[in-house]
Amino acid sequence: MKFIVAIVKPSKLDAVREALQGMGVAGMTVTEVRGFGRQGGHKEIYRGAEYEVHFVPKIRIEIAVGADIADRAIEAIRDSAGDGRIGDGKVFVLDLEQAVRIRTGEASAGAL
Amino acid sequence: MTVSKPTRGWRRMALALGIAAPVAAFAPPALAEVSAESQYIFNTFSFLIHGVLVMFMAAGFAMLESGLVRKKNTAAICLKNIALYSLAGLMFYLIGYTIMYPGDGGWIVNGIFGNLDLFYDPSAAETALIAAGDKATPEQLKAVVDSGYSVPSDWFFQMVFVATAASIVSGTVAERIKIWPFLIFVVVLTAIIYPIQASWVWGGGWLDAMGFSDFAGSTLVHSTGGWAALAGAILLGSRKGKYTADGKVTPMPGANLPLATLGTFILWFGWFGFNGGSQLALGSAADAAAMSIVYVNTNVAAAAGVVIAMLVTQMRYGKIDLTMALNGAIGGLVAITAGPDVDAHWKAIVVGGIGGGLVVFAVPMFDKFRIDDVVGALSAHLVAGIWGTLAVGIFGGGSFFTQLIGAVAIGIFVFVASFIVWYILKATVGIRADEESEMNGLDIAEVGMEAYPEFGQAS
Ligand SMILES: Nc1ncnc2c1ncn2[C@@H]1O[C@H](COP(=O)(O)OP(=O)(O)O)[C@@H](O)[C@H]1O
Fold first, then answer.
1. Which of A91, B45, B182, B403 has its C-alpha lying 20 to 30 A from B383's C-alpha?
2. B459 falls in which pLDDT band (50, 70, 90)?
3. A29-35 and A56-65: which strand pairing?
4. With 60 as the cut, is the pLDDT of residue B119 above it?
């Protein structure tokens, strides 16, 4: 099993969800996050004083998938979240040791 | 104590209409005369309905301030606002009213310090009349009606103004002041400081005798609140991290601009009560006409304040600052408050527009002096209030010199008195929350609850 963490632009969340659901990913968790990368922040003005906003809003997507579909999932995220512009985001992939469905106690792939 | 005290506006109205009686009667010979009882009803109605509008300004201040503080101080600012409104009402009943309106011959120091008639009951004559029921004598009814308006309605209308002055202080000292010492200051401000200076003008004191004119309180309410806030802000110091060692300003953006916008609209709405009701009478065609003019002037002044603030921020910063546009509305409203009866609407636009523009320049100016004003109350209420008071002298509502004397005299009195009270509080109980409380937010440190506790248990 693989654990995929993707950081994407907030406006791309729906497209990513659609793409992942379409290829058979059975669930996902999302959080509103802020981050910086090469895109950096931007300047804002509040009551006459300029200040730098270092972190830009992003969406963090977490999905646990079987190892067999991990590569296709990553492809789906790239296709749906990418604009080809800086700030599009990143995908991190981790090995996943265990998963358990709380309701039934099913473990491993059956829990996904 | 007599009830036929000089109330603000009566004098001006009587002079304008060429009559000496305290109740204005506008009766061109061709029209039927308005009966004294009808006048009593309409005047009372005006006090009550406009007083309620001004009362709602307390909600406006609460929302404006809630929007402009950071999330972690929201519950504390809400608590301060409802507490100060309540304390102001009780203090004005307990002490304030008779200091402010000592009546003819009631002064302890003539024209300077009013009466100390504790627990003065403004409703005595009305209560007696109602208690008498069917047995009320015509004389008894006449005594009530002849005062021109229900005395408790006037009491109510004056009380809500005191609360406004206290609200102004709350915003400036937000995010770092301890709540109880703040409330003690509010008690002194509303029981003593505000009523003394207000008696000088609206109570018929020495500034009134000089001809100083402040229709609804650019100086008496708004600058007074501003001076009290300034003294507090100086002794309190700035929020931690607001100014860097090399003189830069670290913005601490407000948490909720929709709330700040709602608060500004509520204040604008309430201001029709503030200025319109300060006509103090609705018992004649002349009063109804004058009041309508006041409404129009109040509205165009606020609108001009917003537009000028928008234009100035666009030119200075390349963007339109919403919070400044909101402050611009308040600046315009405060500026016109000394003379909303000005004789041409274009003059109201000029007065309000300059008021709004001044705010945009005053905000960074106070920052330069490292005076940390969280919501811009010093700029919108103090600076625009002084401007509005002087504008009366410029646009034909009185002598410029007299207006200047009034603004300066009240400024010195309120600032010094407030400074002393803040200083004593600082030296005894302390006024500033400790560093950890300030970092964690006053909601947890002082109120023990969060304004938005959705995370975890509470959801
Ligand atoms: N090394 C990293 N670790 C964790 N998150 C990162 C990392 N690099 C980028 N991110 C996240 O990805 C977002 C987009 O990265 P960015 O470098 O701005 O654009 P791009 O990936 O298109 O070059 C960032 O805002 C941040 O949330």
1. B182
2. low
3. antiparallel
4. yes
Asked if B141 has any chain A CB less than 8 Å from its own CB, the reply is: no
For residue A100 the two structure tokens come to 């358990």
B405-430: b (≥16 Cβ within 10 Å) or e? ebbebbbebbbebbbebbeebeeeee
End-to-end CA distance of chain A: 9
Shortest CA distance to B5 belongs to which of B151, B112, B131? B151
At B336 the three-state DSSP class reads: helix
Query: Chain B contact for A42, CB < 8 A?
Result: no
Residue type, B416: V
pLDDT of residue B168: 97
Count of residues making up chain B: 459
Residue A93 has pLDDT above 70, yes or no: yes
Give B29's pLDDT tier (boundaries 50, 70, 90): low
Bridge partner list, A60: A7, A31
User: A32-62, pLDDT tens digit by residue?
Assistant: 999 999 888 888 889 888 888 899 999 999 9
CA–CA separation, B80 and B90 (whole Å): 15
Residues of A in Cβ contact (< 8 Å) with B257: none
Distance to chain B for A44, nearest Cα, Å: 9
What share of chain A in percent tops pLDDT 70? Answer: 100
CB contact under 8 A, B253 and A48: no
A75 alpha carbon – ligand 1 mean position (Å):
18
Q: What is the ipTM of this complex?
A: 0.75
pLDDT score of B21: 38
Record: contact A51-B251, CB cut-off 8 A? yes
The fold of B34-455 is Ammonium transporter fold (1.10.3430)
What pLDDT score does B11 carry? 40
pTM of the model: 0.89
- B386 in Cβ contact with B337 (< 8 Å): no
Angle at B113 between CA B112 and CA B114, to 5 degrees: 120
Number of H helices, E strands in chain B: 20, 0
Within 10 angstroms of residue A62's Cβ, the number of other Cβ atoms is: 14
Residues enclosing ligand 1, CB less than 6 A? A 7, 35-39, 56, 58, 86-90
Report how far residue B243's alpha carbon sits from residue B284's, in angstroms, rounded to the nearest whole number: 55
- Name all domains of chain A by residue range, CATH numbers in brackets: 2-111 (3.30.70.120)
Q: Please choose, from the candidates B255, B259, B260, the residue with its C-alpha nearest in 3D space to the C-alpha of residue B71.
A: B255
Burial B257-280 (b: 16+ CB within 10 A, else e): eebbbbbbebbbebbbbbbbbbbb
Identify which of A11, A12, A33, A39 to mutate to test ligand 1's pocket (most ligand atoms within 8 A of the CB).
A39
Asked if A100 contacts A107 with a C-beta cutoff of 8 angstroms, the reply is yes
Residue B36 tokens, joined: 């004294």
